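Let us work through a complete example step by step.
Step 1: write down the sequence.
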Amino acid sequence: MPTDHPAAPRPTARHKVLYAASVLALAVLLCVCFGVVYTLRLDPGGNYDRLMQLAYLCMVAGFLVLAAQGLLVFKKILAGMNRDAARADDLAEQMQRLAVLDGLTQAYNRGKFEEVMTRELGNVRRYGLDLSGIMLDVDEFRTINQTHGYSAGDRLLANLAHYLEAQIRTNDLLFRWHGGKFVILCPHTDVDRAAIVAEKLRMLVGHKLFGGKIRMTLSLGVVQAEEEDTTTDFTQRLQSGLAASKNAGRDKVTVVRPRMFPN
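Step 2: predict the structure and record it as tokens.
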């Protein structure tokens, strides 16, 4: 979510006093220099060595005061530039997050899913690593929307995503698919261990009361990636597993193995 930035700080009382003092000092020095020049003008033949020394001292002091003023102003400008740079970095980070997150649930979106799947399937082919996926769907989500309202349905999905994130392992990734569907990718995990995760989520969600009044169930499909898989192959098998759970009466976990849905 966007971060509120504090307003640019105004000059402090200390800065104001210093700047006013420097202006006053310049005014005094200019008056002294003017007095010296005026005296020399009235009587150019006199001996005014001390006055000339005073004039030189005033000039040096004036340059020092001007330098101090410049430093004071530069520090304020530099502070503003640093704030602008920090805001630009923060905005760039927010844009990156928005590009990969689902706006409603703050889970990763389908674009990020495609990116991660390409990387992980490459690891499956090159290194023989295990990769499993879980596709889940809220049962009767349309009925929930009609009964409690679409705003409540949106809050339900956001709460569900947050709850799922808290339950899965740190190396697992949650993606919003569409509607009430989510996908969980489980790197370094075979299908049997992924099925245990799926069953755990089914039971936990089924026993939880969301928003203090909505109870729901999940249907889930579980598959393991194969070396020849494309992203499309993998997601089609996930959808097949989810459909099998729906057709079996919902609130179930279906593990899809290659022999169950031959090409």
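Step 3: interpret the result. The chain has two domains: 13-100, 110-255.
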